[in-house]
Write a structure and sequence with these properties.
This protein is mainly alpha-helical. It has one domain. About 65% of the residues lie in helices and about 0% in strands. It has 6 helices and no strands. The protein is globular. The model has no long low-confidence stretch (mean pLDDT about 85).
């Protein structure tokens, strides 16, 4: 993705930290946390790699199609999981956005900026993720604590941290789409 190097590195750090926390969530006692954490970790690390400033590292030409294949597989997995729960539709949209950005970068030879994407689709994705960020941010408003059955929650079991990670990935997606 393109933009200033300092904002690119901040985006890399944010996405990598989010991916690392999602890996911790894979050890959760709560099955639903474990189930979604793997896909979110893939998304966080994938976004971190895509956000590395182009001035520092320009991926080889085969990297963008490889990203599209990896996130296309993640989109198929999310589509399959959405049969059981509509919560996975967000994962489907996120993986689809990653495929879209990888395809746009591949088409531009990895050097495109502005106009490399389809403006209507970029705009629709921007609206979706901006709305997602606003809704998720509102859900982070503090509520009274509820005692956890079986003792205090571990780091991987804290729903407010999972929401904060989803919020940070949503904001990162908005930032990446703005550079298209």
């Amino acid at each position: 993705m393109h933009g200033s190097a300092s904002s690119g590195w901040l985006l890399v750090a944010l996405c990598a930290a989010t991916g690392a926390y999602c890996l911790l969530r894979m050890r959760s006692r709560v099955e639903e946390q474990r189930r979604s954490a793997g896909g979110e970790a893939l998304m966080g690390f994938g976004m971190a790699v895509m956000a590395v400033p182009a001035a520092v590292f320009t991926p080889p030409s085969w990297a963008w199609p490889a990203y599209a294949v990896v996130f296309g597989a993640a989109a198929l997995h999310a589509l399959w999981a959405a049969r059981a729960s509509a919560r996975h539709l967000h994962h489907l949209v996120g993986a689809g956005a990653m495929v879209y950005m990888a395809a746009a970068m591949s088409a531009s030879g990895g050097h495109g900026h502005g106009g490399s994407g389809v403006p209507l689709l970029t705009g629709a994705l921007l609206l979706y993720f901006a709305g997602y960020v606003l809704v998720t941010g509102v859900r982070l408003v503090p509520v009274p604590a509820v005692a956890e059955p079986g003792g205090p929650a571990g780091w991987g079991d804290r729903p407010e941290l999972a929401r904060a990670c989803r919020l940070s990935m949503g904001m990162a997606m908005v930032a990446m789409l703005l550079t298209m």
